[in-house]
Structure formats: structure tokens, C-alpha cells
Amino acid sequence: MYRYDQFDARFVAGRVAQFSDQIERRISGELSEDQFRPLRLMNGLYLQLHAYMLRVAVPYGTMNSAQLRKLAHIARTYDRGYGHFTTRQNIQFNWPRLDDVPQILSELAEVEMHAIQTSGNCIRNVTTDQFAGAAADEIIDPRPVAEIIRQWSSLHPEFTFLPRKFKIAITGAAHDRAAIKFHDIGLMARRNEAGEIGWTVHVGGGMGRTPMVARKLNSFVPHADLLAYLESILRVYNRYGRRDNKYKARIKILVREEGLASFREQVESEFSEVRGGVLSLPEDELNRIKTYFAPPEFKDSDARFDLAALKVSDPEFARFVVHNTHQHARPGYTSVTISLKPVGGVPGDATDTQMDIVADLVERFSFDELRVSHEQNLVLPHVAIGDVRSVYEALCAAGLGEANVGQITDMIVCPGLDYCALANARSIPVAQEISKRFGSAKRQEEIGDLKIKISGCINACGHHHGGHIGILGVEKRGTELYQITVGGDASENAAIGNILGRGITGEEVPDAIERLVEVYLGARSGADESFLNTLSRLGETPFREALYGND
Amino acid sequence: MQILTANELISGATVYFLADGGWGEDINSARVFSEKNIPEMEQAIERAQASGVLISVESETVRVEGSRVVATRLRERIRARGPTAPRHRRQKPDIHHAVEFTHVSL
């Protein structure tokens, strides 16, 4: 993985010193809250309902064991013994004290971590496929390009005060596991007719109160031109994005109002000015960055899982293999997903002890690499197939052995009104009740893969628009109500879910989900017909009627 | 009826303006302002904002049930009790700041 050079280390150390001084001046009264607020937000420090919240960046979701151990230490020493992994592949601490933040940032810097640009109207953490550099189906490892984008976008002088926050996702595989079409810019690798690899650029996607699927802006941008092209998009957005209305300030609104053709014309005009200039990416620089992401020293192996035998001899482990491993590009290896969705637990949370245990596994079994997925799980990207049983046993002992990846209890869930100052309704208790309702392995096997996503407000941090079943918490006359959507899809076939009808109470949600699931199970043509395909074939009516009858 | 609430600067903890003129963490000890006391409440807001040690100072609508003060909004009931799931204890306010501010406010 990428290691800081002297410039990076100096830059982060300088920022820690600067923000520490600002905190000191805030506590002494030299700075008012109005003066301090934008400074703390630029350093990932929010004020939530009960306390401050510090959001720490995990660039493109990649960490090593030392970094995870440091996060465990911070959770244990300065917080309440846990951290919350987010859909931007970052981690949040919910209870830090303001006067501890300088020391937290200082200790993070020791392991090349920080909280810069995890908030504010800037380019946020670039996210990617959690199996990047490991997946059998990718045509290129996107992490070197993600790292280059990170370097380009960190404190970019033009793009530190954009009209609104800006999110970029990148994938090197045709199967999109990074929800790129729900990003301001989504990049997908592809080969052109000459066999060269470049990037299809999508623009104007996003969730929130105005959900939109990104539209294709350019079907092929070569590596060398990518930064210049991104800069051109950002310049057009920075110039014309709506600064007068924060609800219309995202690039998706500009693209919609301007029209894709006109927007593209302006980007191309800008691109013609900057192409071939200082932002051209020389091949040798790309290769230099690539060396940080060189594949580990795999051993030759033809080990495979004998699933048929395992299902008889060790059915629980077989279930883990089926759901929590992903095909690796290298024979004899696999990627193991560690579910942070224990039945009845808090989605995305890991305790300090669990983080330490996972760090040990990262070091022993995964070439010191860990990933955070945007679906709020952890991934050991490179595990020898012969080691998976040992990993599984260690995970089970740590309460992390849930074999539910991709299933109905593997939900994306925002913190909701239990923590978030913006939320209108709680998300976590709703998720816990759904998880308990569908928690049995048998029930989940019967249903098959199904993605539920829950947001506690229209800002959609829980990605409900992209859920096969989405749940949106709203508040009406002092009561929490939940709107149910169906048909969302965050994959390469991205789609926004449709609301089925009026909101229902939190207590009614598990029964409502049960009824939707029953419609699906009763109507699907077979176990291999997905929820989305059944929905597409039948339309929404039977699902709506299952919730509301014929009224 | 209304109360005043804020977050204490160092801990970020939820605190309430109390009947004795100080700030504390128990909503049931919060001073409840009626319509006729609104000018006093506004003065208290100004003092709190000027203190520098309280942030997000806001008034909240409540009802009084015996010895309990109950916020109308669910958001405020959660602020008063802490997250509902998992059940974490609330953040403790920083004592030094609370004392310091009590002096400032009085």
C-alpha cells in the first residue's frame, strides 16, 4: 500500500500542529465558535447530538495492521471502545473530547492517518472496490489511480471551497461494487479497441434529497489525461455550481439543469485548454505509484474449497465460504469479508478488541492488508484458501463470524437519530429488529441475496435509494415514520428505488419487510431469480398491496 | 413551555440551563420558561452565547409531568437520555468548564 513520502509526512504533521493550535485558541476563548466551526469541520470534527464526532480518513478503504491497531487504541483510550465504519470507507469515533483531539490526530499521524477533507465542501475520500487488486474479475487495480487522485485533490487550491461536497468513486472491474453511479464522478476502467486501458467517466450521480444516477460523460479517457479531465469537470462545476442554495449545489443539479450535452461541451472546452499540460500523468510516475500496490508474494497453490464435502462435514463453515469469500485473481487465494453485521448488532461498529484481533489476522493471513467496504464491512483481501478455516475460527471467537455477506441482515445503516444532528428518525433500532427477525441462517438461505439499506433522513447516508428494499426515516408531527422503497440498485445497473406508499411506524417495519419478502418468495420463478428481477417482472403492485392492501 | 439546552465546549455533552442560573446535565432540573418569562430566557441565551463555553444554544419546547421535564421532540428526548441503541451513558460535561461558566453566568 502507499507509504507517505517526506512531503506527505510534513504536510500531515503541519496540519496537526495547526489544528492543535486552533483548538487551544478555541478553548482559551481566543476563537469564537463561529470562527472555529469551519476550522474543525475541515479537520473532520463534527458536533453531534451527544458529543463531538471525529471522522478519520481511510484512503480508498485500505489499511494495514498498524493502522487498525492505532484505531483500536484510539477507541479504547479516547473514545468508548468502539468505532463505526462508514459508507465512504472511513471510520468515525462518536465520543471524543475536544481537548483530546490534538493527541488523537498526533497519534494517527504516527501511522500515516489523518482526518483532513473528511468534511467540508471539498473532494472527499475517494472510494473504490473493496476487492481492488485482488478480484478475479477486474481488468486493472484502481488503487494507484485512486492514490493519484487523492494526491491531486488534497488541498487542491482551486477546489477547497467548492459549491458543495464532492465525491469520487473508482472501480477497475465491470461489476461495480463501489456504487460509482451514485457519485459526483464515477470512474470505471475499460479497454478500448486498441486494448489500452482507460476510464469511462460518469458524472452527476448522488443520493440525498434529489437522487440521480450518474450519466456517462466520456466513454474513454486515457490514464495520462485523467487528472486533466477531472480538473476540467471540477472547474466547470466550481464556476457554475449553485452556491446560492445548498440543496441545489451538487454537481448533479448542474448537469441536470445545464443538460448533459452542454455540460460536456464546457468540460471539453476546458479540457482542450489543460490537456497535455502539468496535469498529464507520465507513465513513469504512474509506474512509481503502482510499485506501492504491487501484488504480495503469493505462493503457488492450487488449493480450492471442496464445497460439496464441506456442506456435509462442516455446514456452518461452508456457509461462511459461500457468502464471505470472493474469488481471487490468484489461484489458491481468496478474499474474506468480515461481516460487521452481527444479528441484532449495530451495523458497521467494531470494538477495540475486535479491531486488535482483526489486525492480528491482517498481519498473519493477508499480507498486512485490510480493506473497508462501502457496505460497512471489513475485508482481508489476500487469504490463502488453506488459511480460511483458521481465520473463520478466530473471527467466530471474536463475534465476527457472521456468514451473512450480501444477505438480508447485511444492511447499510446510517447512525440515524441516535447520534446524528441531521437525522429525523432512528435507523439502528430498526435495523436491529429486522436483523433479529431474519437472523436465522435457514431463513436467510431461503431468501438469498437481498440488500436492505436504511437512512434516518433524506440526506441518505444509509444509501436507501440504492437498496433493493430501502427504508427512509422521516418525522411527522413528532413521530418517526418510515417510507419503504423497492427497486433500488447500487451496482452497474444503478437504479433509484420507488416509494411504495405512506410511512409506517418503526414497530411496523419488520412485518412490512416480511410481507415484501413473502411476495418475492411466492412469486419468484426459482431460487436463482433475484428480488430485483422478480420485481421487474411483476411490477410494484403486488408489493404495494402487500403493504397497504388495495387502498 | 420552553427550556434552554446547549453542548458544553470541551466534552460536547448535552447540558441544560438550570433553575439556579447554572448549567447542568439533568433535564429534570432545567428551568422551565413560560410565555411571560421569554425576555429572561432571551437574556440567558445571550449570556450563554457570550460565555464561549457553550455551543449550539437552543430553546426547546417541553411539558412538565410531575417532577419530570419531557421534551416534545424525540430528538431532544434522545439528547436527554443518550442513544437508544446501543444504550450508552450520556457524555459527561467538563466540570471545570461548568464551574467556570456558572461564575460567568451569575
Distance between the termini of chain B: 23 Å
The residue-averaged pLDDT of chain B reads 88
SS-based class of chain B: alpha+beta
Query: Structurally, how many domains make up the residues of chain A?
Result: 4
User: What is the end-to-end distance of chain A?
Assistant: 56 Å
Number of helices of chain A: 18
Biggest interface, chains and residue tallies = A-B, 29 and 25 residues
In the sheet with the most strands of chain A, the strands line up as 1-2-5-4-13
Strand order of the largest sheet of chain B: 3-2-1-4-5
| Tally of separate helices of chain B | 3
- In terms of DSSP E residues, the strand content of chain B is 25-35%
What global shape of chain B is seen? Answer: globular
Roughly what fraction of the amino acids of chain A lie in strands? 15-25%
User: Shape of chain A from CA axes?
Assistant: globular
Domain count of chain B, please report it.
Answer: 1
- Spatial extent as radius of gyration of chain B: 13 Å
Sheet of most strands of chain B = 5 strands, antiparallel
Uncertain parts of chain B: none
Oligomer: heterodimer
Can you give the mean pLDDT of chain A? 96
